[in-house]
Amino acid sequence: MKEFLHISLLFIGFIVVLFAAYYFTKFIGSKMSYSNIARHIKVLDRVFLGNDKSICIIQAGKRFFVIGITNHHIELISELNEAELVSISDDSSGSFSNIFEAYINRLGNKKKDKGQGMNRIH
User: Fold this and answer.
1) Cα–Cα distance for residue pair 27/109, rounded to 1 Å
2) Domain extents for the chain?
3) 57, 61, 65: which is closest to 39 by C-alpha?
4) What is the four-CA torsion angle of 10, 15, 17, 19, rounded to 10 degrees?
5) What confidence score (pLDDT) does residue 21 get?
6) Nearest-CA neighbor of 77 among 107, 97, 56, 98?
7) Which of 29, 68, 88, 100 lies deepest, with the highest CB count within 10 Å?
């Protein structure tokens, strides 16, 4: 009976710690989300070029900038006019599903060609 009470208290304590951790992280997360809201600067787009290297288009007020970011350096590459900001259409031809489908089709065609070649020999 004493062991059951001890195990029950440990289990209840564990549940209390889990709830406390959940609500604490929720509270901290809500406070941190307000600190990341910028009223005057906005990152419009980011392209990762490699490990810790990227190019960003940022908007500061009504001005647009292209900046390069590395681990140790941030550099202004260019300033853009709003007319120069052209949305690049999403070309899905390079998506994984399209590449995979093309590969499967090629494999299927090779098998058909081999099968037809075998039929010709016989």
Assistant:
1) 57
2) 1-37, 38-82
3) 61
4) -170
5) 94
6) 56
7) 68
